[in-house]
Amino acid sequence: MEDGMGDLFDHIEDLLDFPDDVLGLAEPCGHNGGLLLPSLPAPAANGLPDGVGDDALHGFTTRSNKFSSEEHKLGPLEWMSKFLDDSDSFSHDLPGCDGINNNVNGEDNGVQTKARGHHSIFRTSSPVSVLEADTMGGGGGGDSYSSSSSSSSTSASYSNGGNETTILLPPLSPPEPPSALVVPARARSKRPRPATFSPCHHVAAPYLPPSSDAVAIPNSLSAATSSDPESIGESCPAPPPPKKKKSKKKSPATAGAADGEEAGPPPPVRKCMHCEIQKTPQWRAGPMGPKTLCNACGVRYKSGRLFPEYRPAASPTFVPSIHSNSHKKVVEMRIKASQKCATEGAATSSSSDGCDLLEYIRRRESPTALKIAGIITGSKHEKRRLLGGMLNDCVAGKSSAKMRAPKIASSSLVATLTCLQFAFAMYATFLLYYMSPSVDLRSKADFTWATRIAQHWKQFIGHPHVLSSIQDIPAAVDSPATVCEFERIDFSQKKSDDALMIKLKRELYDEVLAFQKANSGTESLAELTRMKSKWSRGGPNIPKITVILNHFKRKTLCAQLDSLLNQTLPFYNLWVLSFGSPNEVSLRRIVESYNNSRISFISSSYDFKYYGRFQMALQTEADFVYILDDDMVPGKKMLEILSHVAGTDKYNNSVLGSIGRILPFRQKDFTFPSYRKFRSKEAGLYLPDPAYDITVERIVQVDFLSSSWFLSADLVKTLFVETPFTFMTGEDLHLSYQLQKYRNAGSYVLPIDPSDKDTWGDSEHRLAYVSETTAIFKDVVQARDDQWWRALSAGYVTRWATLYPQKIDALFYAHSLGEVRSLAPLLEKFRATVGRKAYIVVSGGSFCSCQEAVTVLRWPENVCRERRFKIFDLEIGAISGTSNSEVPVVQAVYSSLRGLLKIHNPSLLIAVDDADQKVKNALKMAAEGTANITALVLLPRAAVAKVLWMADLRPSALPSWNRMRITVNVITQNRATSLRRLLGSLQNAHYLGDEVRLSFNMDSKVDQETLKVVGSFQWAQGPKFIRRRIIHGGLIRAVSESWYPSDDDDFGLLLEDDIEVSPYYYVWIKYALLAYHYDPQVSLPELASISLYTPRLVEVVKERPKWNATEFFKKIHPNTPYLHQLPCSWGSVFFPKHWREFYAYTNARFTEDAKENPVQIPKSRTNGWQASWKKFLIDMMYLRGYVSLYPNFPDQASFSTNHMEPGAHISAKDNVVKHNKEDFEVPLMKAEFTKLMPAGKLPPANTLPVLNLFNQAVSLKALKAAGAKLRQDLISCDEAEIVMVDHSTGLPRNCTSWLGLDD
């Protein structure tokens, strides 16, 4: 538009700035240098010279029988009326020299003389119809005389729609020639002059009065009139050829610059004097002479059927509203015009010229009038073409004419031209303002103010009669019926005859619908309309909807506009987009033909493909956006239905449409097929799909929508959160994927009423899809397959993932190649373990691409291309780009991982603990937001190789990885050196990234050195607590009161300061807890503690014999762990439930004198132990059948050892038992221990061997029987019963039989 308007304003100056000769100030009339003018008397009171009345200058005033005296005041502006009324050119209505000399006497010869003077002097015959020029027949130049009129007749016949109206006229007498006055004029120089705006080329012939008294006529005009009849129909009479001069031949350059020579005129262009056609098979004779009509017009003229309404279809002056090339239609048009004239013009026929139909047609079909109408109302290209043509015609006519008519100099003309130029400048200013990018183009510019000004001031720029004639000019904007004539919807419904395909597609649709009905529900159209909605057509909340139509080649715009304009709920505005379309001109014409202020046309020469319409949707101010492909013609109720459903609570965060797609399902070989795979149920389906007789009669959720989208305007921006996989295709999938990923918004296909097309999203139902007959380019299929697979790999929860939720053991995340290398051993261990599934997710892009990751993992290169779950590339760069902000990275990682966790439901999400903090935050949010339990495991890189046993745990135990909380309780008193050794071993242990709390427990008499060691120790694994008693309580209180569980996941490790632990002690505890305590498939309620120590003696027997567990269990497995009824005091983790029982039991049975203790275990030396907390724990475990888990490795290697340093019991004065250090000090485990176990892992719980208090192999049931038989618990029970305890308090609750308990 800018180019076109630029050309327009470039020519405005040329159009309006006329040279002097246009105003008749310096224009000679002939070759003699003199100007022939009549004698001009002195000016009269009316402002005109004496002798020159209104009749002589009729062309610049009005007809006396039409206008009042008031209207004569507008005489100086009559040039504007004539320019628009006669619709030819300025020179047509200005008198020529010959005309002035032929009629300047001012005599009144009656009406006929006055009419003749008007038509012959100030009007030239019409250049587009020979039927209007009666000069060729010898009469005056009347406007609409038929070809049968003559100069001698006393009546004139006016053709009026097929009827004739006869007006009696007085006898015609030729006017007497006036006396000529020769006015000297400056001789015309031979210098070249610029072309002026003088389109005189349509002048056919001057008026020649029938008198023999001829006046002076220019030679060129006389010659053209008398000797060359074919030149009459040309644009301007050509001057006679210059006389040839004998001269020497000159070069073209020299010849062109010769003095006194001017270039010869261009050869005349022959045109049909009726229709202006320039090319015809044969030129024929007409009323203006031989070879003046084209073949078609000449044939009709000869047969008497040539009327002004007739035009050949190829005529440049053909206007469909007033012309026809059919004689039958011409007759109908004339009859219709006659009837209209009879009804509307009867009242004024007596005082006017009657219903001059031919004059009316002549004015309307004048080329200049048609061009002006086209410039005013035409399109950009039409305005540019017409204006350029007018200027070219004007320049050509000026340069070829040797004789020009003198112009009347008038100050009114100059003033009017100045005003017109100023008006054009104002219009250009406002137009450029509204074209400025700073102006909001979302709504159309309002130019009604200009219309009001024009209506108010039009009386000052032209006569009402003239303006009414201008209003009769038909607008160049066509009607919708005209521009839509050739739009046809070419479509034939496709049907599949493949019975297998119909069966597979129907089964899949029924499966999807049944699942949705069982989980979230699905409603019919009637049920949806009954739901409560925020929006309603007649309620207080009427939604604003912006409709966007994107068109390229299909010819469906008219059908779409007709449907949308007749919606039961009107749209707010409608934008028709044309991006790089070859049909832009026709699309613009269609939009303009509807002339609706709510409909806008937006075009660009650049093809924005499928995403451009969504970019435009970002500009809307409406509540909703309805985007339609050019193959969708919605029913008349669609906007009402869509807005109602979008206003319900259930579907307000959704995108709605009429066509959807279910993406492929996984096949039996664990791969995904192409969505175009033939004869495959897993390939997915379209909904609806008439080809397979699938109609959507209940709302159904799909993976993505196609062809139409109705969504909240706020949701549109979500499409551009991530850079699309490609801009060439796939905007439908990308929209639904982004909405689900970032807004948790679903995509739904609305149901229809099969009997009511107004409820259909596509009333033409052009949505059939038959894979075996529909051709799609292979590269497009590959691109779309890659796109949906990448979306699925980045967390897109498809219908398949919802119907068939997966369950894997671990999902690894690596943000860099270094993290891939660190996690690789554990990943391979998971993938190598039978029955385990683990995948890895890489960040992608510049961080860690899939290709780089598979190289590190030594996987095949095609892993990144095959549609099989193994590695997922998130393409983080698609959203974060080069941003330094953590927000895009956190958003991308979180949203993608959330979808992947929902699809695959891993038990563990594993990453390294030194990853970027923002990445760890995103992983944490994703793991915590899962409905199923997924534990986030952040492992130190050095610890990865030490937790390979993770793959050996049952999948049911893995989610509890982070549940346990272990508190290390150190009991210390005045052994600072031993304390330092213990703290050093604790600090060097592997904690697998877990938080471990450390608590110090000291008696009141602790020494200063110990306090300094405790106070200065830095614990990096978690919080540190210090407890010190005020009153000395002894060892029994120091141990038993050192820890109390806060919940069932709080475990206590009790360590005296002479203990030293192995670096793997925490690994052993965590492994054992996950395998035997947190596995819901394992039932081992008797397990009360986990020992770090392996004893070498049978402690409860008086002789204390040596005992080697490796030798004892060699028939089972030499290194199998085992269950023992004896608790360990040299490094053991106690379970919270059993520790509460121990508290309650000790509180009830505690006594300083061991002999007063009622519990006496047969043959146990523990019965005589004094002031020992362990004695009360042994009694409780014996009575209730509890056990501890012990490690068993070669040479009794353990996770803790006792250095037997002097203390409360060792080397005490009252202790008669001598302790050999070698019997208690065992080696510590310094390396990975799982490879020493049976099958390299902890054995199942039901295979663990069980020992009683005396190291005898028994069953768990036998332990319960022995305790029940003693009947010495806190409450009395039968021998077949044991005490049941309330685990929240530890207090005994009741007795229950142990016979029904399993081992």
UniProtKB/TrEMBL annotation:
InterPro entries for the chain? Nucleotide-diphossugar_trans, Znf_GATA, Znf_NHR/GATA
Q: For this UniProt record, give its keywords in alphabetical order, as a comma-separated list.
A: Activator, Metal-binding, Zinc, Zinc-finger
Q: Basic residues: which segments have biased composition?
A: 242-251
Source domain of life is: Eukaryota
- Record has Metal-binding as a keyword: yes
Cross-referenced Pfam families? GATA
Gene Ontology BP annotations: regulation of DNA-templated transcription
Chain intervals with Low complexity compositional bias = 144-162
Q: Report whether Disulfide bond shows up as a keyword of the record.
A: no
Please list the residue ranges annotated as the GATA-type domain: 266-302
- According to the UniProt record, where is the region Disordered? 124-197, 221-269
GO molecular-function annotation terms? sequence-specific DNA binding; zinc ion binding
Family the entry assigns: Belongs to the type IV zinc-finger family. Class A subfamily.
- This chain belongs to the protein called GATA-type domain-containing protein
Please name the source species: Musa troglodytarum
